[in-house]
Amino acid sequence: EWSKLYLAHHWPVTVCKDCQDPPEYWTIHGLWPDKGEECNRTWHFNVTEIKDLMSDMRRYWPDVIHSSLNRTQFWKHEWEKHGTCAATLPILNSQKKYFSKTLELYQLVNLGFLLKAGIKPGSTTYYQMAAIKEVLTEFYGITPKIQCLPPEEGEEAQTLGCIEFSFTKELELRTCTEPKEELSVCNDTLPVYYPSQVK
Ligand SMILES: *[C@@H]1O[C@H](CO)[C@@H](O)[C@H](O)[C@H]1NC(C)=O
Ligand SMILES: *[C@@H]1O[C@H](CO)[C@@H](O)[C@H](O)[C@H]1NC(C)=O
Ligand SMILES: *[C@@H]1O[C@H](CO)[C@@H](O)[C@H](O)[C@H]1NC(C)=O
Ligand SMILES: *[C@@H]1O[C@H](CO)[C@@H](O)[C@H](O)[C@H]1NC(C)=O
Prior knowledge:
The protein is α+β, with helices and mostly antiparallel strands. It is 29% helix and 18% strand. It contains six helices and eight strands, in the order E-H-E-H-H-H-H-E-H-E-E-E-E-E. The protein has helices at residues 12-15, 54-60, 71-86, 95-109, 113-116, 129-140, and strands at residues 5-10, 27-33, 126-127, 145-149, 158-167, 173-174, 184-185, 192-193. Strands 1, 2, 3, 4, 5, 6, 7 and 8 form an eight-stranded mixed beta sheet that branches. The radius of gyration is 17 Å and the shape is globular. It binds 2-acetamido-2-deoxy-beta-D-glucopyranose (NAG) (4 copies). One 2-acetamido-2-deoxy-beta-D-glucopyranose (NAG) binds at residues 187, 189-190. Its EC number is 3.1.-.-. GO terms for molecular function: hydrolase activity; ribonuclease T2 activity; RNA binding. One of its GO terms (biological process) is RNA catabolic process.
């Protein structure tokens, strides 16, 4: 039984592998319960159930990691791996509810404010972790988890990749505590590169 949900936003420029023209705004990776995967293998993804959400899905939840897969496959993966587990909660117990609630939480969190707070992507800009954390913590009243790609060989800066918010079952924001998979939690002492272009 899971107890909290992570809403993961990724920075397309950083996570894109072979994509073209990644969006220049934070997009959704997924809404993930903290425990469990593939909780119901007979509950298949059906894109028709979310057809009303299609324009927001395309805009805010594109597959920016694997451009070769079609976007339906990315949503199918997210539903089957995470959505079927989240669905124990009545407000998330259908594909329509799971995807629309995720879009709603994404809009609520709205990382677009980073720009207004002066944290902007650029090809020569580096930030201190403390500065990014301060802006986020001040704005949300909680601390999200900030993840980076570690510095490449011979480089000093890590690259900003993912910001995760944690929600209770009542969908209240809470401070993120536990690290989780993929990228690693940004190192507080290294500068942070927030790229505007794919390398
Ligand atoms: C799994 O999904 C199927 C198809 O939607 C549903 O009939 C069944 O009740 C679900 N099982 C559980 C344990 O939720
Ligand atoms: C997919 O969802 C639509 C709309 O709810 C439904 O009419 C259709 O039967 C579903 N398809 C499958 C294969 O379950
Ligand atoms: C995209 O992926 C889905 C799910 O695997 C599949 O049903 C569909 O046919 C694919 N569409 C294209 C255009 O390849
Ligand atoms: C953070 O980076 C510094 C400088 O490279 C290194 O000494 C330290 O071990 C790193 N900390 C973690 C937790 O990786």
